Amino acid sequence: MSGKHYSEEFKYEVMKAYEKRDYSIKELCSKYQISQNSLREWIVGFERYGSEGLKRSTSWKPYSKELKEAAVIDYLSGELSQYEIVRKYEISSRSVLRRWISIYNSHRDLKDRSKGRTNSMTKGRKTTWDERIQIVLDCLENGKDYQGTAETYEVSYQQVYQWVRKYEAGGDEAL
């Protein structure tokens, strides 16, 4: 059932049934043909924001690096469940927390993305053939760090990514 979107009205109907406590969570899920994960996410949103919490989010919510690390460390301590951490830190969903845990456990840096995706959406600029070769070689030397290379040379992430792909497929003549 992943990827299925439910109307606000449907979610509200389920929440009203949940509030009556006539059914267990498992019974509600069976009756309304929804997953327990979906229901738990709706409950968190509904308890925090009322019917507004049942609306589908259309915007990206920024989180500080410190908040991400605190949430992950709380989870790894084993004292709180993912649902409790989502509530405590007001994280938009459990999947966001799981992504942070995965990044943290793979020893990568939880980045502070307070301005959304603007870093990777930098407008590209014209470059010379020699410059493109230098950019590609630098990117490859740094383990295909497209974002870092793009920032260093003030070009877009997309440009760096495409140049590396072309270089790998056809050498420097492909650039």
TrEMBL record:
InterPro entries per the UniProt record, alphabetical: Homeodomain-like_sf (IPR009057), InsJ-like_HTH (IPR055247), IS150/IS1296_orfA-like (IPR052057), Trp_repressor/repl_initiator (IPR010921), WH-like_DNA-bd_sf (IPR036388)
Residue span, Insertion element IS150 protein InsJ-like helix-turn-helix domain: 10-56, 68-117, 131-175
Alphabetized Pfam families for the sequence: HTH_28
Coiled coil: none
Family annotation (SUPFAM superfamilies): Homeodomain-like (SSF46689), TrpR-like (SSF48295)
Family of the protein in this entry: Belongs to the IS150/IS1296 orfA family.
Stated name of the protein: Transposase
Species this chain originates from: Anoxybacteroides rupiense
